[in-house]
Amino acid sequence: MSNHPRDPFPAGGNPDAHATGMPVVTVIGDGQLARMMQTAAIEMGQSVRLLAGSAGASAAQVAADVIIGDYTDLDALRGAAEGASVVTFDHEHVPARHLRALMDAGVNVQPGPDALAHAQDKLIMRERLRQLGAPVPPFTAVDSVDDATTFFDDVDSRVCLKARRGGYDGKGVWFPGTREELIRLVTELLGRGVPLMAEEKVRLDRELSAMVARTPSGRCAAWPVVESVQTAGVCTEAVAPAPDLPPALGERAGELAVKIAGDLGVTGVLAVELFLVHADSGGEARILVNELAMRPHNTGHWTQDGSRTSQFEQHIRAVLDLPLGSPEPVGGTTVMANVLGADTDPDQSLHDRMIEVWNRFPDAKIHLYGKDWRPGRKIGHVNLTSDPGLGGGVPELRRRARLAAHYLVHATWADGWISD
Amino acid sequence: MSNHPRDPFPAGGNPDAHATGMPVVTVIGDGQLARMMQTAAIEMGQSVRLLAGSAGASAAQVAADVIIGDYTDLDALRGAAEGASVVTFDHEHVPARHLRALMDAGVNVQPGPDALAHAQDKLIMRERLRQLGAPVPPFTAVDSVDDATTFFDDVDSRVCLKARRGGYDGKGVWFPGTREELIRLVTELLGRGVPLMAEEKVRLDRELSAMVARTPSGRCAAWPVVESVQTAGVCTEAVAPAPDLPPALGERAGELAVKIAGDLGVTGVLAVELFLVHADSGGEARILVNELAMRPHNTGHWTQDGSRTSQFEQHIRAVLDLPLGSPEPVGGTTVMANVLGADTDPDQSLHDRMIEVWNRFPDAKIHLYGKDWRPGRKIGHVNLTSDPGLGGGVPELRRRARLAAHYLVHATWADGWISD
Ligand SMILES: Nc1ncnc2c1ncn2[C@@H]1O[C@H](COP(=O)(O)OP(=O)(O)OP(=O)(O)O)[C@@H](O)[C@H]1O
Ligand SMILES: Nc1ncnc2c1ncn2[C@@H]1O[C@H](COP(=O)(O)OP(=O)(O)OP(=O)(O)O)[C@@H](O)[C@H]1O
Ligand SMILES: [Mg+2]
Ligand SMILES: [Mg+2]
């Protein structure tokens, strides 16, 4: 086209999927986080290229520029990065040495491997956070059965054993009840070459999540602190803002997340998973950091319908070093309930289940990831934002979100409700 | 996968782009409306197939299942419809006989050709609306120069000449100032085979838009009535809800849109473009219908950031006969300003222009369509929702939205603002 300035972002991959003058964001990963980053990017006129494991995966299914390959294969990473304005991730499992190789070749990787190390390895994370003065549970490296049993005694048998790397959704987290169980576990895991650490099993009141976005130039924006509910290690629910949180505590949690983002040089979205604990004597509430995620996070899904800027839009803006959007909530409270595959897949089609849920709860915002059913699999989430017109407050909102999410996978109403 | 019910929506086209158990929505068209329908569908776990004119077009650029073809070619339409749960549109230009052929072959077409006729042909629309008792300006068919000049006298030379079919953005609308100009225009246009009509050139105070969605089962949801601003026939701005609209008038406009949707059997989103007029003597305000659009509409873009349910999500839900979402606004007022290609394309990249706009207006929601620059071309829009914290009310919101949209194509601030 005549009179057109030179494209500052020349496209590699599928050039048809690329708008002139706009960045190409390569996302390593093909899950729901990549899928939702993509819709956010498209709305801003940008294009996303994926490095996906398969063409039918959640994000790959709906993407126009997909490279099929393995994220542990440097050549595949190189191909996906070609011509990209920035490379980012929907998980933390890309080997650091590969990211360094990309950076050496001039690729803009956000977040970088030095920051990512603290989301990849729970021991490195704990050590660094302690060094920064952030509150963490007592912990130790476990390189031998001896390390584990000594720690077991130190924490009065309240032990939580963790795989240092690769865990998610509670896979890689164990709570051995006895010394014998601990010894058995550690022997088996170390024998299989799984690097381990142990920490105190915290007497937690609730779990919180403090989420921020940070740009390479150091701009930060923090969403309100969220309460998250884990069931068997899997996030099932998030309530934003966290109900009945002492304001000072919420502020401290937000500041802590901003400080961690800055100190570790995080770019994009950072989720700081927190434990809320009371001192044994019933003293003042305290927060402890559980772990860090450097990407959009399950506890941030509420932002799609409950905040001026969704975590997916914000992540894209942050890794591109664009000014950040407002993290303000749009309504009162937003509840997010995860849609987790039931033990069996009902005969009723997912489409018909959506109809039933919307007939009962017209205000449910249903997000689905295009994933086939598997027991326990995250296949979607439901957001509900409080409406001044609806009674019952936050507990009622939570009840409704849970009922909706339950119906979507069971095709039954957990409270026995029957439509007329 | 074992234990999986039979897919009620088997995929044609690209089966990788299709999630089991979920509908496939075929959209005929490749513009920004199709692009934004698609992101909405993806969030609900659905898949969209496009019949697009080219692979680089706004929607095709970002779609995983694209059939390149001509929407006037029945075979192309047949291919795009294969295996689709429903066929819908991002424009009204598909020939009715082709839609009837699809329906005869069992394809679910929404909206159907009988409804669409009233969005395709302005004379058919006017005649039908008059028959329904809806308020319309005086009008006539123009099959000869005589028809035109007789009407010219009837309306005291206040004439508006329109192509019956195929117009958009004011192309196909003329306001001849003199009898001679009218004769010249009509002679030329009829000579070129353009079917014409004429109507009174209305003394309009403002333009409004009443938007509703309707499902095949007859459910309806109406958004608040919007004020729309046209500049040289092109929509440049929309304010939702329309400021200072007498509530009774807003209600009447909403009811009228619901009635039209029902009477014409419209499915999906319907926009009823309205003129607000005062009686000559300064009497009571009245509304007149200008025209109908049966698809998401420019005056509904505000819903993406200002309503619980965006018009794109609602259109998809409506054509699939799903329960409709809430059309309630989420904030106070939302202003939408169109981003229209300037006469020349500035050297600063579009990406850098976004940065500048966000630096000045962090709350601007910028939507871009992935389109290359052309003078006057709709390449995006900006939404701004009022924030109780920001002074100046709606006029200030409008000023800011206009400034942002202007910067995005001119790379200059229309008010001379200089960042520090
Ligand atoms: N030290 C601890 N004390 C008590 N409970 C814990 C402790 N560590 C983890 N948990 C529980 O197990 C859950 C999962 O732990 P963690 O977040 O470390 O695992 P993960 O597999 O990495 O999960 P994610 O899906 O969040 O990545 C926590 O949310 C919490 O409910
Ligand atoms: N009868 C009329 N009297 C006065 N102004 C009119 C009249 N008809 C049209 N206009 C002006 O011209 C604009 C475009 O007219 P119309 O909506 O019929 O054209 P269009 O090309 O189909 O536009 P669209 O892009 O909305 O499809 C209107 O929004 C209005 O501003
Ligand atoms: Mg965790
Ligand atoms: Mg019009």
TrEMBL record, chains A, B:
It holds the Pfam family RS_preATP-grasp-like. One of its GO terms (molecular function) is phosphoribosylaminoimidazole carboxylase activity. It comes from the Bacteria. The keyword Glycoprotein does not apply. Pathway: Purine metabolism; IMP biosynthesis via de novo pathway; 5-amino-1-(5-phospho-D-ribosyl)imidazole-4-carboxylate from 5-amino-1-(5-phospho-D-ribosyl)imidazole (N5-CAIR route): step 1/2. Residues 1-22 are annotated as: Disordered. Keywords: ATP-binding, Ligase, Nucleotide-binding, Purine biosynthesis. GO terms for cellular component: cytosol. Gene3D superfamilies: 3.40.50.20, ATP-grasp fold, A domain, ATP-grasp fold, B domain. Coiled coil: none annotated. Catalyzes the ATP-dependent conversion of 5-aminoimidazole ribonucleotide (AIR) and HCO(3)- to N5-carboxyaminoimidazole ribonucleotide (N5-CAIR). Catalyzes the ATP-dependent conversion of 5-aminoimidazole ribonucleotide (AIR) and HCO(3)(-) to N5-carboxyaminoimidazole ribonucleotide (N5-CAIR). HAMAP family: PurK. Homodimer. Belongs to the PurK/PurT family. This is N5-carboxyaminoimidazole ribonucleotide synthase. It comes from Corynebacterium pygosceleis. The lineage of its organism: Bacteria, Bacillati, Actinomycetota, Actinomycetes, Mycobacteriales. The gene is purK.
